[in-house]
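Hey, can you fold this?
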Amino acid sequence: MAETATAEPKPRLSPRKRAQRIRIAQYVGLVVVLLVAAFAANWDQIVDVFFNPDDIKMTFEQGLWDALVKTIEYSLGGFVLGLAGGTLLALMRLSSVGPYRWIATAYIEFFRGLPTLIVFMVLSLLPIAFDGLTVPFDPFGVVWLSLGIVGTAYMAETIRGGIEAVPRGQTEAARTLGMTSAQATRKIVLPQAFRTMLPPLTNELILLVKDSSLVYVIGFSAANYDLTKLGRELANTTLNLTPLIVAGVAYLIITLPLSYLVRRLEARTGGANVRRFDH
């Protein structure tokens, strides 16, 4: 009697092969979804509402580049104030003097928990509450101060982490050379700390650029509009979203190069980027 032939079991896929097939299936699924969305969309309506050529041209003519420059000026001013204040608070937080630590901790916790919009609104209304009070460098002063106050709280923690990352031996070596504690901090610790803090500080600048969009709560004249304020005003005038889309693209012109810089700095320093997620 002839022996019955038995089928050989199929070889099992290796984990690498299985992962490749899953990845291919995901790509195919994504392409299918995109094709369905592309064919189902009303492109004439999308172009008319979001990418209207006449409204794009009008947005440029109504001062897009001026608003872009104003956004950069607002952001850089807030960043400079935040960096200076954050450095001071970080040193206070690390101080051996108890009241300094308490004041710094209270400031950081308070303004990290407070929405930036409220800071803008309070500072813009202070002259109403206090007769004769004026914020210097009007109209930039209120924006710089608002962004600087919030940026200080976040940068202080970033700077404190960078200072603590510097080996204590560096400070001890400086003290043995006759430096005071302040000299050691200024000449030895801070220069090394700032090299490792560059990526998270650059990320803070990106966040301040986006926070500058809150300028719309302040009653500025058209000459001082930022990108968001300009986009909102033109969108309300035209009843079309194209100006806001153009303003969003202008923000990307600022933030994308900064994001690329953050990645390059992180790759060079090997440091972890400290981010905040309050928005």
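Oh, and this one too while you're at it.
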Amino acid sequence: MKKLFALVIAFATFSCTSNAQKTSFSETALSETLMTTNGGQIAFKDILKNHKGKTTVIEVWASWCGDCVKAMPKVKELQANHPEVAFTFISMDKTADKWLVGIEKHELKGDHYMANDQMKGVFGQAIDLDWIPRYIIIDKTGKIVLYRAIEKDFDLINETLNKLK
């Protein structure tokens, strides 16, 4: 019975921590480079520095992702309702061509970057990426206030952004 209880406790602990909300990015995530729309590379920490002092929404997406495409109208609604917020899109596409076409096709306004090694790569693992679209909100001080939100969490995303005004 003690072993069963210990197993249940261990499973509950693991289940709870896998979806934990973090308040900062790992050094691995910060030092990982992403591709820019002109084919260059930039460290994630430098992307964050570019938005210092602004509330920022990061959307991790891909042009091939059906749930990402379905969520685009909600993202555009968020942008319209929160013009003071910076939006950064990080693609998990396999090729830059498809990524760039996706940006144009969906008329995505904001800063755009692409992970060099898709969802299962270094950056994806460093931000605990297990689903896209994924939304991360960073406050004006650079602290993560919402680490793990998906397309079903737009009410929570909007509520969080309203609190940060």
